[in-house]
Amino acid sequence: MTTAALTGDYTLDIARTRIGFVARHTIGPKVRGRFEEFEGSAHLDGDDPSKSNVELTIQAGSIQTRNPQRDEMLRGRFLNLAAHTTITFVSTAARQTGATAFEVTGDLTIRGVTRPVTVALERIGAEHDPQGGVRVRFTGGTTINRKDWGVASIAAAGLVGKKVVLEFDVAAVRRTPPPPRPPT
């Protein structure tokens, strides 16, 4: 499917999307986790990718590392869930860097702190689904410094490396376009 044929408005396919992270632990192996609750939308412009945009809202309390004690610490000390229930990303620019490669720059808000980040994405699939809709899949990520979002003054933070890799395996479904208007 050509990039131009993908133009349209999309919503995340929650069942087929994974938003995860990897952080180095100073006294053990890397800590891997994911977020279970999120929603997102995008407008893809296949003719001019710079006109594309993305919005993502993650429920911070849905963080999972398969260790309940660590998850509670992350929700409280790291993410300050009592004051900041969501993590958001709103794109400010997009550009195509290769045949199926893109960079999306935007504002990432964690713990009430908003900073720009650039996410590298690779389109790994695009097809018609059995219902006749269009599905597109991307994979990619970015590395952030947790201290840039205020996760620095926490005593337990000394056990976690500064760099956190954000990972995205995204599936999105194009919304059905409205029917054409009859001529007047």
Describe this structure in words.
- The protein is mainly beta and 184 residues long.
- The protein has one domain: Lipocalin (Beta Barrel), CATH 2.40.128.
- The chain is 6% helix and 53% strand.
- It is built from one helix and eleven strands.
- The protein has one helix at 68-78, and strands spanning 8-12, 18-25, 31-35, 38-44, 53-59, 63-64, 86-96, 101-110, 113-128, 134-145, 160-174.
- The chain has an eight-stranded antiparallel barrel with strand order 1-4-5-7-8-9-10-11.
- The protein is elongated and about 60 Å long.
- The mean pLDDT is 89.
Secondary structure elements and pairings:
Blueprint: E1 8-12, E2 18-25, E3 31-35, E4 38-44, E5 53-59, E6 63-64, H1 68-78, E7 86-96, E8 101-110, E9 113-128, E10 134-145, E11 160-174
Antiparallel strand pairs: 1-4, 1-11, 2-3, 2-11, 3-6, 4-5, 5-7, 7-8, 8-9, 9-10, 10-11
